[in-house]
Amino acid sequence: MSRAQLVTASKHAEHCQRNWDRSQSMPREDVQALVDIATTMPSKQNEEYFQLVVSVNSQLNRLIYDLSIDPDNPATLHRNAQLDAHAVFVWFLHKPEQLNMTDKKNRAGFFDVFRLNAKTAIGISSGAVALSACHMGYRTGYNQCFKAYELRDLMIEWGITNLSDEKNTPELALGVGIPQADTPWNHVLDDEGNLRKIVDTESKNIRWDIIE
Questions:
Q1: Phi-psi category of residue 43: left, alpha or beta, with phi > 0 → left and psi -120 to 50 → alpha
Q2: How far is Cα 104 from Cα 39, in angstroms, rounded to an integer?
Q3: Residues of the chain with pLDDT under 70
Q4: What pLDDT, on the 0 to 100 scale, is given for residue 107?
Q5: Least buried of 38, 50, 61, 201, by fewest C-beta within 10 Å?
Q6: pTM above the 0.90 mark?
Q7: CA separation (Å) from 13 to 20, 34, 35, 53, 155?
Q8: pLDDT tens digit string along 36-61?
């Protein structure tokens, strides 16, 4: 991977892809590679702060999409099509009870904020997945707008049986897939390919410095 290719992949990952080419599919080997990347990124003391659930089932992904709304904001209806992708990655909080971790102490008994560490680990993991997927030629879209407990219950219904603890909440989701050709990334389409809505875009200019 050249420096230019890496920067190009990061620029693609910056934008939330909201439409997908359903005539194509992702090879399972690519999905597995992204799972391997997601689950081997660093975390504090290499603890298992999250559990990853990945769906490549189009029926389930549509149900996830339907839950990806804010009940108090009607404008989010049909907006978050990034989670109707070919593959949907969902990071759940995970606290191994056998390690005697608490919300404020690690397994060694020292003060350590679990939720902060978990969110950091999820951010590192998901960022690596997004960058890698875009380098592989896919596009990605993040989402935190979903009915968390209903999403967890949906995963349980689909066979993920170890998410029954109330603390196992979904914290972040990422859609990965093949974009619709010649369609701007921020256009949400219906099942017939008609434009449903255009999501406003924002730009950023983060200050950076290099000390020689």
A1: beta
A2: 24
A3: 97-99
A4: 79
A5: 201
A6: yes
A7: 15, 14, 17, 20, 26
A8: 999 999 999 899 999 999 999 999 99
The amino acid at residue 154 is L
User: Which tokens belong to 8?
Assistant: 């190009």
84 CB contacts (<8 Å, ≥6 apart)? 20, 61, 62, 64, 65, 175
| Dihedral-angle region of residue 40 (phi above 0 means left; psi in -120 to 50 means alpha; beta otherwise) | alpha
Distance CA 92, CA 95 (A): 10
Would you say how long the chain is, in residues? 212
DSSP state of 86: S
Q: What is the pLDDT of residue 26?
A: 98
pLDDT at 101 (0 to 100): 77
Distance (Å, whole) CA 129 – CA 114? 22
SS3 104: coil
